[in-house]
Amino acid sequence: MTTSLRKLTLGAVAGATAIGIAFACRTPGTPVGGLAAGDASSRVYVAPGKHDELYSFMSGGFSGQVSVYGLPSGRMLKVVPVFSQNAENGWGYSEETKAMFNTSHGFVPWDDTHHPELSQTDGEIDGRWLFINANNTPRVARIDLTRFETDEILEIPNAAGGHASAFVTPNTEYAVSATRFSVPVPNTDMPIADYKKAFKGTLTFMKANEPGKMRIAFQILMPGFNYDLGHSGKGPSDGWFFFTSYNSEQAYEKLEVNASQADKDFIAAVNYRKAEACVAEGRAKQVKAEYVHNYTDERSRVAKSDTLTRVTLLDPRDCPGIVYYLPTPKSPHGVDVDPSGEYIVAGGKLATVIPIHSATKLLKAIENKQFERELEGIPVLKYDAILAGEVKEPGLGPLHTEFDGRGNAYTSMFLSSEVVKWKLGTWQVLDRMPVYYSVGHIMIPGGDSKKPYGKYLVAMNKITKDRYLPTGPELTQSAQLIDISGDKMKMLLDFPTIGEPHYAQGMPASLIKEKQLKFHRLSENTHPLAVKAESEAGITRTGKRVTVKMVAIRSHFAPDNLEGIQVGDTVDFAVTNVEQDWDILHGFAILGMNNAETILQPGETRTLRWIPKKAGVYPFYCTDFCSALHQEMQGYVRVSPAGSTVALSANTSKKAKTQLARLASRTPKPKGKPTND
Fold it and tell me: Do the strands 398-403 and 408-413 form a parallel or antiparallel pair, or are they unpaired?
């Protein structure tokens, strides 16, 4: 370890320890940030029956999901299943959703989510979609915000660790994903010691503006660094995308020491408009690459997978001017662009300053060829030629910056456990707010867009030893809500979060609250096993496969008695919830199943697969409380020994037929898509 690095590390640890001691000595309940406890509680109180002002979407980290919270209350509203199976609603267990976990590596039912990103129009949040990355098996998912459901997942080839993702361009033309772990491209067996010679990074630009049609537009082949985060330019930096990178030493062992030698690493500035032109001119190569695209059909609600076999790959040496390296101290994590698009702010985890690059100076330096060297065909610009300024002595471990739209920036300090407010243009530190402890990312709703909603800041904290009741060796993760509407930051609220929240996005509830889908129209259900009248329900056998078409309605299943099933049969229970009212869900589970229940939204069909292993009588029931007679919503399956002569049969009831006929005669009048009324 270098002397300077050792001093910096020891100083950081000492500073963090001192702050931790100061926090630990604080009397529980003592207000932080100059706001009395009663005032803070009134600021975050949302009365019964009232709604929050904002939605906050947080990555679930190692949960693989996205969590949704209301602000300012901090109430958790929903967990959106994305990259991990979810027993609560059968995501990844039901036959309709399993395909969403298909990859070139097979069925992958878990991942690590880090960076959600809301879709934008003209650089402003528009409330259509939320994108989220998978870090372990590189993928990007699209969540439809009229239903808060994952509709699409695209795998990223030629990459390992999809960390710098899933950030979008100002009109959501592209979502991006960059390599965290450089690997051989194409990946093949070779000595790890050949890292510097053969390992490469990739920057991936995906077409993202059409639901169900995400595709890789092109990849850019990069030197074998670690690429960490990204953000799109706007205004004077429009048409550019910025990615942080570290490990410019190209170390492949003991990175804690060996990847922290250089005083500066880099931000990669990508001119993606020029890259588009190079692709159109035929300068890119079509290379073999196997990857999978998963998407859900809107009406059948059945997921499908396509395996793709080629990708467009651009080498910067074949298209000069598409990438430049901006020297940046030291091991930068965040790269953030202010609302005007002029300032590009880096967060160097081991830096003693916060460096701010100027988009105007960047373009002028390129024009004047103010380069200090070249790396694998990529010019490295001179630091002083592109620098707008530096925030001096901001704190320890600057990580990530957001903006309030009033000329102020806020940076998280991981080692000194604080959020620091500073002024754009003067680079003067204006305020500090301690947080508990080791803050990672921060979020201001709209804080990375052209139009921040600069009322609140959310700090996502890694360690929270004394904030909540203890829960064994593993304590809850935490977020803290901070008022940034005045000159001084004021702490308002702690609230627990699922998994490890890395990053978040927020927006006014008014953008999407009135656009929520209330139910799926039964008349538009194109699932091949959907049942729209009880006369269509029943049971059939083809060899050892048995299909049960079933209706779920308050408060019974039809059929609810099944016989003639044999040990070893594969039984598909295709259950259709024929309700056409908002939030009237039904569930289905059967004794001895080896997967999870399935939850059925109004108007949809879901299939639970079951293989009985023993003869007997097996009850099934509704798992989602649906009415006063929910407990009565049950049935039985008789399972006979293999080869039995018991006839296949299924009953239905006259009561169910009457109810279903009445339901089918109702024609709900739409208020306008995508909501139902």
Answer: antiparallel
Burial class for 362, CB neighbours closer than 10 Å (0-12, 13-18, 19+): buried
Q: Within 10 Å of residue 511's Cβ, how many Cβ atoms?
A: 17
Give yes or no for residue 659 having a pLDDT over 90: no
What would the DSSP string read from start to end of 405-460? SSSEEEEEETTTTEEEEEETTT--EEEEEE-SS-EEEEE-TTTTSSS--TTEEEEE
The answer, yes or no, to whether residue 266 has pLDDT greater than 70, is yes
The per-residue pLDDT for range 602-657, each reduced to its tens digit, is: 999 999 999 999 999 999 999 999 999 999 999 999 999 999 999 999 997 555 45
Residues 329 and 332: their CA atoms lie apart, in Å, by 7
Q: Which amino acid does the sequence have at 637? A: V
Q: How far is CA 110 from CA 162, 299, 465, 585, in A?
A: 14, 26, 27, 26
CB 169 within 8 Å of CB 125: no
> In this structure, what token pair is assigned to residue 188?
């093949």
The owner of tokens 């880096």 is: 346
Average pLDDT in the 519-523 region? 97
Q: In three state form, how does the secondary structure of 552-567 look?
A: EECCEEECCEEEEEEC
The Cα-based distances of 359 to 245, 285, 416, 641 in angstroms read 18, 30, 30, 74
Among 620, 578, 549, 574, CA closest to 96 = 574
Given a contact cutoff of 8 angstroms between Cβ atoms, the answer to whether 567 and 543 are in contact is: no
Residue 365 phi/psi, 5-degree rounding, is -65, -35
Run of H or E residues at 25? helix 3-25
**Strand-pair partners of 419:** 412, 433
Query: In angstroms, rounded to a whole number, what is the distance separating the alpha carbons of residues 43 and 440?
Result: 25
**What pLDDT, in 10s, does the model give residues 112-155?**
999 999 999 999 999 999 999 999 999 999 999 999 999 999 99
Maximal C-alpha separation, the chain: 87
What element of type H or E holds 657?
helix 654-665
Please tell me the distance from the alpha carbon of residue 448 to that of residue 292, in angstroms, as a whole number. 30
Asked if the peptide bond before residue 186 counts as cis, ω within 30 degrees of 0, the response is yes
R_g of the chain computed on alpha carbons: 27
- What does the alpha-carbon distance between residue 315 and residue 222 come to, in Å, rounded to a whole number? 8
DSSP 8-state class, residue 669: P
pTM to 2 decimal places: 0.92
Q: Is the peptide bond before 48 cis (omega within 30 degrees of 0)?
A: no
Instruction: Compute the CA torsion angle 597, 600, 606, 612 (nearest 10 deg).
Output: 30
Mean pLDDT value across residues 524-538: 94
Provide the residue type at 468 as one letter: Y
Which residues, 6+ apart, have CB-to-CB distance to 210 below 8 Å?
Answer: none
d(CA 611, CA 573) in angstroms, rounded, equals 11
Buried b (16+ CB within 10 A) or exposed e, 380-394: bbebebbbbbebeeb
DSSP 257-304: HHTS-SS-EEEEEEEHHHHHHHHHTT-SEEEEEEEEEEEE-TTT--EE
Phi-psi region at 458: left, alpha or beta (left = phi > 0; alpha = psi -120 to 50)? beta
State the Cα–Cα distance between residues 250 and 252, nearest whole angstrom: 7
Torsional sign, CA 113, 253, 383, 2: positive
Give the residue ranges of DSSP H helices in 139-281.
195-198, 255-258, 272-280
Locate 5 and state its tokens.
């690095």
